[in-house]
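Inputs:
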Amino acid sequence: MRKLRMGMIGGGIGSFIGDVHRKASGLDGMIELVCGAFSSTAEKSKASGKELLLPEERCYANYEDMILKEKELPEDSRMDFVSIVTPNHMHFAPAKFALENGFHVVCDKPMTLTVEEAKILENLVTSTGLLFALTHNYPGSPMVKQAKAMVENGDLGKIRKVQVHYLQGWMATSVEDSGNKQASWRVDPSKSGVGGALGDIGTHAHNLVEYITGLQVTEIAADLGKFGKGRILDDDGNILLRLENDAKGTMSFSQIAVGEENNFTIRVYGEKGSLEWHQENPNELTTRWIDRPKMVYTPNGHELYPLSLAASRIPAGHPEGYLEAFANVYKNFATHLNASLTDKKIETPDYPTVSDGIKGVQFIHAAVESDRQNAAWVSLK
Amino acid sequence: MRKLRMGMIGGGIGSFIGDVHRKASGLDGMIELVCGAFSSTAEKSKASGKELLLPEERCYANYEDMILKEKELPEDSRMDFVSIVTPNHMHFAPAKFALENGFHVVCDKPMTLTVEEAKILENLVTSTGLLFALTHNYPGSPMVKQAKAMVENGDLGKIRKVQVHYLQGWMATSVEDSGNKQASWRVDPSKSGVGGALGDIGTHAHNLVEYITGLQVTEIAADLGKFGKGRILDDDGNILLRLENDAKGTMSFSQIAVGEENNFTIRVYGEKGSLEWHQENPNELTTRWIDRPKMVYTPNGHELYPLSLAASRIPAGHPEGYLEAFANVYKNFATHLNASLTDKKIETPDYPTVSDGIKGVQFIHAAVESDRQNAAWVSLK
Amino acid sequence: MRKLRMGMIGGGIGSFIGDVHRKASGLDGMIELVCGAFSSTAEKSKASGKELLLPEERCYANYEDMILKEKELPEDSRMDFVSIVTPNHMHFAPAKFALENGFHVVCDKPMTLTVEEAKILENLVTSTGLLFALTHNYPGSPMVKQAKAMVENGDLGKIRKVQVHYLQGWMATSVEDSGNKQASWRVDPSKSGVGGALGDIGTHAHNLVEYITGLQVTEIAADLGKFGKGRILDDDGNILLRLENDAKGTMSFSQIAVGEENNFTIRVYGEKGSLEWHQENPNELTTRWIDRPKMVYTPNGHELYPLSLAASRIPAGHPEGYLEAFANVYKNFATHLNASLTDKKIETPDYPTVSDGIKGVQFIHAAVESDRQNAAWVSLK
Amino acid sequence: MRKLRMGMIGGGIGSFIGDVHRKASGLDGMIELVCGAFSSTAEKSKASGKELLLPEERCYANYEDMILKEKELPEDSRMDFVSIVTPNHMHFAPAKFALENGFHVVCDKPMTLTVEEAKILENLVTSTGLLFALTHNYPGSPMVKQAKAMVENGDLGKIRKVQVHYLQGWMATSVEDSGNKQASWRVDPSKSGVGGALGDIGTHAHNLVEYITGLQVTEIAADLGKFGKGRILDDDGNILLRLENDAKGTMSFSQIAVGEENNFTIRVYGEKGSLEWHQENPNELTTRWIDRPKMVYTPNGHELYPLSLAASRIPAGHPEGYLEAFANVYKNFATHLNASLTDKKIETPDYPTVSDGIKGVQFIHAAVESDRQNAAWVSLK
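Outputs:
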C-alpha cells in the first residue's frame, strides 16, 4: 500500500466543498493532494495552490492542462486520480476527460446535468476499467452503515414505509442577490441543471433511501416549490415515493425551511422493526421493535455489524461527524484503488459509484417531469 | 357557575376512550358524570355504571332511553349535555337525537361517516343554538396553543411549508384477529367508515395543521396503504398537501409503523421562523429563526401568549400530558356552556366545533377519492 | 369499594399545592372532597369552599373544628381522612390531632419540622393502626416504578453509584421580597424549618434515591449555599452521599439554578447496568448495559414490571405527567384504605408512609449539621 | 507560514491516542508528521513508522535518539516540535529533554506524575521561551468556546454554581486482567501516578470548569471509589467544589459507570443565565435565562462570539466532533508557533499551556489527599 496522489479540479480557497474534500481525503493518511486546477484562471489557481503549500508547477490553469501534463509525469509521481469538486455543470467534461486519459475519478454529486451524460460516463467506466466514486457522503456515517446492515440482515423484516426529509433554511431569503456564491450558482439552471434543492440535497435523500433499504425507488409524484422571489429552480419539494416490494414513503426537502441547518432525517419501517437516523446528531441510531423497548445504537458500541464497525475511528462516545463520514468515502475508494493497483481483489467496495450517479440524475429529471404534470406519477426506470 | 352534568354514550368499563373522557371531563371540577348509556345492552350498561358509582336508575339501556328520560327530569338534576364516545358509526344518530331533544353535545371524532350526516348535524346546531364540541384533544396542549398564537400574531411570517406525521405501530400485525377490540372495529368499514387510520389519526393531523396555521388545506394527493393482511381499509397513508396562501406540505400517518407509540409531530415553516412540536414530549415547543438561535418554549414558561398560559394548570417544569390536553377541550366547552346558561358572552371559545367536524369528514372522503384516482389531486371544498 | 371522603387542611383557592392535591385525588374517581379547613380564617375558608362547590356547613374555620365536627357526623357521610397541604410548620399539629381523633392522614412533605415530632406521629400511627401517606409524588411515576423494580429484581446488579440533582431557578432573585407567597414562607425558618431548598426539594431527591435503589443513605457531607440576598436558609446544596452496601454518590439541589424549571434527574449505576430518569420528560427510562445497546422504556410499553404497568392509565405514547404521578400516591393510598375498611389484605402498599417521613426529616437535620461542620460526614441514623 | 514538522513520542500503531494525535494534527494541513520514536523498541518503532509511510531513518529507537539526531538535521528539515503521547509516567522526561534541546512541546495530560516535575517543566518553558501545549482537547470544541466567551462577556452574570460529570463505563469489570492495554497501565500507579480515573478524566473535568468559568477551583472535598476488584487507584470519584468568588459545585467522574461511553457534561449557573454542554452531542450549547425561553446555540450558527466562530470549519448543521475539537488545539498551537517562528505577535493563544498542566497535577494530588482525610477540604493552592 502506498499513499495515493490526488489532483483536484475546482475547490479554490474559499470554496466550501473543496476544503471538505481536502480534509476528508487527508484524514486517514492514505491520500495526498499533489496538484490542482482549482479555479477558473491560472492566477487564481496558483494562488490557491500556494496557500495549500503545493509546488507552483503543479497548480494548473485548467483541468485539461492538468490531466495532459500529469499524464506525462513519471508513474511514481503523477497523480493517481482526480477529485472533481466544481458546480454541477462542470462535472461531466472533466470526468470524461480524466477517464479518457486513464485517470480514476472521484466526483461530487449530482454526477451530471443530464441522463445522457451520466450514461456516457458509465460506459467509459466500464470500457476503461477505471474506478469512479461519487461523493454521497452520508452513507459514510457509521450509523447509516449499521442501518443498512440491519435491513440487509433482515432484522427489520420486509420494509413497508420510508420517511425522509432534508431541510435547510439558508436560502429562505434571496441570498443569491447579496453575493452569496454558494447560492448564486445553485439558482442558475445553466450551472445547477434542471433541479435546484432537488439536485443539491434531494439527491442525497434519494441516495440514502436506496442505500439503507436496498430497494429502488420505482416511481415518484413530486410537488416542487419555488418560494424565493424570482427563482426559476425549485427550492423546496414534497414527493410521494413508491419503492420495490410495495413499500411506500414520503420525501421532503427544502432550502427555505427557516432555521433548519442541515436536518437530514430518515425513518424506515419494516414488519418487525424500524429505525431512525438524524444527520445532525449522527452518532445515534434509534431502533424500535415489535416486542422490545427502543434500542439506541452508537458507533463502536454494542451489537454492531462489521460494516458499521469498520467506519469508526475512535472509541464509543467520542463523536465523529460530517468530515469523518465524508472521509469514509475516500477511505473506501482509496482502499479499492490501492487493491486495484496491486491486483488484489477486495469485497464489493462500499462507496457510491457511477451507477448511483445515473440513478441520482434520473431521479432529478423524474421529479421535474412529475412536477410539470402536477405531481403525476413518473417512473424512475 | 355550577358543576355541569354529563351523560355518557358509550364508554363502558374497559373502553380506552370512555375512561379518557371521564378523567378529562372531571379533572377541573367543572363537570360531573351523572348518567350513561354505556354499552349495547342494559345489563352491561348498568354494570359499568355501578363500577362508576352511579345510581342504577341513571344507567340506561340505550341512548334514546337516556335522552328521553333525562329530558323528563327536573331541570336542576337532568344532564346538561351528552358525551358520545362510541365507535365512528355510532356518532351521528345519538348526536342528532340529543340535539333534537335539546341537549348540548360533546362528540368524538371523526364526527360522522358521511359528509351528508355531518351537514345535518351542522344544520341542527345552527337551528337549535345548542353547543357542540368535537374532541380533537391535541389542540388542547399548551404548546400547541402557543404555536397557534405565534402564527396568528405573525411571528413566523407567511407560512410556506408544513410537515405533519402521526405514526403508530400497534396494528403492524393482524391484531384484529386476536381479539383486540380497539382494532376490530377500526378495520371494519361498517363501523369505521371509508377511512381506517385515515379517520382515526389522519383527521387529528389534518385538524392540527389547520388549527396551528389558521390555513385551510385546499387540495390533497393521497397514496393510502393497506399493509395488514386482508385489510379493506387503509392502515397507512402518505399525502401531499396544498394549503391556502400557496403553502405546501406533506402528511404521513400510519398504524403499522412498527415500534412507534403515538408519534404525532408537526413542523411549520414561515418566512421568518418555524416551529416544531412532538406529542410524545408535549411540553416543549421548539422554534427556529432566521436570525436567532433556536428557542424552546415550555408551558407556563417565558414569553407565552395568553392562549397558551390559559391552558396550563401547574408551574413550568411540571409536565402535563394527554389527559390534561384533553381536559382543556372539556374545560373550554364547560366554560362556554356555563356562560351560555347564564347568558354571559365570552370570547370565541377555543375548542373544536361542528364545523371542524365537517372538515374532518370531508378530508377523509377526499383522501379516499384521491387514492382511488392513484393520488390525483382532490379539492377539499 | 366505595368513594372515599377527603377533608382538606390548607389549600385555599390560589394555593399551588392544594389544587394539585385536589386534582390528583380526584383523578381516578376513588376519592371525593367533602369538606375543608382551607385557610387561616373562617371567611376565607368558606370562600374557597364555595368556589370548590362544597356545602357551606362543611367549610370549617380551622382544622380542630373540622376534625371534631366531622367526627360527630354519621359514619356514612363523615370524612374518611384528612389531606394536609399547609406549609411545613403546619403539618405536625393537624396530623397529630387527626390521628388522635381517628382519622387517616395524607400529609405533604417534609412531614414535620423536627425529628421528635416525626417520631410522635410514627408512634401514633403504630398505636392507632390508622393509615398515613406522605405525598412524595415522584415515586408515583410509572418509569420510576420500573426503575425501582429493575433494581429490586437485580437487573442492574449491585448498585455502586448514584447521581441525583433537583434544580430549580425560580428563587434566583429575591422573589420573596416582591410578594411571591410560595417564596416567602419557604425562606422563613419559622415556617419552613431548618432547611430551605433542602426541605423543599432536597427531601424529594433523598426519597427518590432510597425508593429506587432500595438502599439507605447512611452518611452525608453537605455544603449548603445561601446565594439569595439576606437569606437565612439554604437555597442551594451539594452533598456527597454514602449508602448501604458501599455505594457512593452525589446530590445537588438548588432553587437559584437560573432557568431550570423542575429539573429532577437521577442516575443509578450497578455492576451490570444503569438507569437514568428525568422528571421533565418522565415518560422515558433510559437504561445502559454492559453488553447491549442503550434501551429506553416507556409507560405501558414493552418489558415492564407489574409495579410499573399498574401505574399507567393510558396507552403507550400518550404522556402522563406530574398530576398523574401524584394521583398514583392517592390511588394506592385509597386502595389500601378501602381494603382496610373492608378488612381485606393487600400487598405492601406502594406509597410513602410515616417512616419515609421520619427519614426525610432526619436527612434535613443531618445535612444542616454537616454544613455547620464545614461538610463533615454526618450519619443519618 | 509553512507546514510545521512534528516528531511523535509514543503512539505506535494500535495506540488509541497516538492515532488521534496524528489525525488531529494533520486535519488542517498545517502540520506534518516527519519522524517518531513510537515504541519501546527500535524494531517496533520502525514497524509503526513504516505503516505511517515515514522514511526508515526517521523512525528512532527512543526519544533521546530522536531529539539528538533531529537536532543535527538542517534547520529546514528537522522537526519543529515533539508531540508526547505516551502513558503518564513517560511525559516528564521526554518533555524536559525536548525543551532542553530547543524543541517546542505538545504533551498529553496529565502533564507529569508530581507537582515538582510540573514546576520543572514550567521553569524550562519560561527560561527557554519555547512553546508548550497540553492536549486538553475539550476546550477545542466550538460550543465550549462559546460557553467561555459568554461567561467572559458577563452574559450569565456572576457565576454561582457548577456541575460537572465525566462518566465512562469501560472499566466496570476487571478489563485490565484480560489484556486490555488501555486499562492495564491506567490501574498501575507506577505508570498512571497517584490518580486513576482522577488523572485520566477528572483532570479534563477540572480543566473544563476553569476554562469555561474563568474561575479557579480553590478547595475540594473528594470521596474516591475503588470499585474494581483489587484496584489500587481510584476508578470513581465524587467531589465538592469551591471556586473563586464564592461559587460552589460538584464534580463526579467514573470509569465504572456501566453503559456510559464518554458522558462528559457541564452545567454552569450564573445570576442571570446558565448553560449546559454535553460532549457526546457537542454541537449544541443549551442556555437558560431568567427572563427568556431556553436558547440553543450551534457551531457556525447565530449570535456566536468570534472565539467560537474561529473554531468551526464547516457550515452550521454539519457536525464536527472529537477529532475536530482536538485538531483545534493543534491548530491554535501551530498558528502560535508559526507566528513565533516569524516573530509575529498574536493574541493570547487559545490552547492549554504548561500552567494548566501544573494546575491539573495539583488537582490530582489535592483530591488524593482529601480522600485520604475522609473527604476533608484541601486547598488547591
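Remarks. Chain B has twelve helices and 14 strands. The longest helix of chain B spans residues 322-341.
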